[in-house]
Amino acid sequence: MLPSRVFAVLLAVFALTACGSEGDEEASFDYGRDEMKQAIEGTWNGTAKAVGSGAPDEQMTLKLTYTAPDLSAQCNNRVLSSEDARRGIAPRCAAVSSMNLTGTLTSVSEAGGSAREMVVRGTFAVMSLRFDGHGEIEAEIDDGRLSATLSDDVLGGSVFAPDGAQLRTFSLRREK
After folding, report:
1. Are 152 and 144 in contact (CB under 8 A)?
2. Does some domain include residue 140?
3. Which one of 32, 108, 142, 169 has the fewest beta carbons within 10 angstroms of its own beta carbon?
4. What is the domain range of residue 42?
5. pLDDT tens for residues 96-147?
6. CATH number, residue 124
7. Which of 108, 133, 128 is nearest to 118 (CA)?
8. With b meaning 16 or more CB within 10 Å and e meaning fewer, what string describes 123-159?
């Protein structure tokens, strides 16, 4: 019988090796940068609604383009377990592809206000080996943050203040 520490180390090595197994045909991505660019790049139009206020809806335009990263990813993974790893939950692998985005977010109040344009810098991520048109955007805008989900050709999400307060929700469709 193996000592528990040796067993835990072997379990962790096996789990991490399984995550990095590139020879496994089932564990390969069925898409690349071109498919992700095609899904997210372009001009998205729709409306935004202020959260918790009676303000009228705003027209919103989000223009997004792929940006080649100027830095390589600096990611680390750790598997932390107790002495008795046999009772724990096995580590899970996450299949994620991401690409950098830049663009502009323009909002105009329907009450005739002036246009406000903000720079967008963030990431579009697809969390699957298979690409079915779904993905997530996390981006910085001015001092705030934008979080959105791409699903069924609709980009829906929220704009947050620097303190994390949700400012507005939006729903956008891409120009054809």
Report:
1. no
2. yes
3. 32
4. 29-68+92-174
5. 899 999 999 998 876 666 788 999 999 999 998 999 999 999 999 988 999 9
6. 2.40.128.120
7. 108
8. ebebeeeebeeebbbebebeebbbebebeeeebebbb
